[in-house]
Design goal:
Elements (H helix, E strand, L loop, with lengths): L1 E2 L7 H11 L7 E2 L6 H4 L1 H12 L1
Parallel strand pairs: 1-2
């Protein structure tokens, strides 16, 4: 999961590296979340966890 407004790890720089390093990894993009995604998008995170492991 990635906060698309993250100032600490900007997605434009960080996501390409993450995807290259872990090509089979699914990244859930959280469009309005910043660095603390659990505070900015708790429902989206819970839903993604349930989708993956539920």
């Amino acid at each position: 999961m990635w906060g698309m407004k993250d100032p600490a790890f900007p997605p434009s720089q960080s996501l390409p590296r993450m995807r290259a390093a872990f090509p089979d990894h699914v990244v859930v993009e959280l469009p309005n979340a910043k660095h603390f995604i659990q505070e900015d998008a708790p429902e989206r995170i819970a839903g993604a966890i349930l989708d993956r492991f539920g």
